[in-house]
Amino acid sequence: MEEYNKKPLDELINEYKQIETSWKRLESEAKFLRDKIKEKMIEDGIEERDIFLLRYVKQEEVLTDITELAKLLSQGVTIKSKIKLTPQLQRELGDKLTAIKREIVDNSYYRLERKRGKVAEVEEDE
What global pTM score does this model have? Predict the structure, then answer.
């Protein structure tokens, strides 16, 4: 892996292009097979097989209208947790958002994305 630190960017991109099509095809086939295996294990009532373990996960969400929470707060209930103001909620609040104390958390990171419409064209080494 050390040799990759010394390679120029163009060479790394070219190597990526060379394997990308095969990798995407294999990834697609693997997902298809995992889905079929899961389906078959569920049908046959099998919980464990070779390299797979079938787990049933049930997640329950508790939802309420914000006005319901506001009613509790007006009755003297204290909540120490912060809530995330989703973009939808921010739009609904509009200019009134500036009237409340809020904390802005910056979650910045780099993400490498594929350009839309770009097909991986492999440059042949000369």
Answer: 0.56
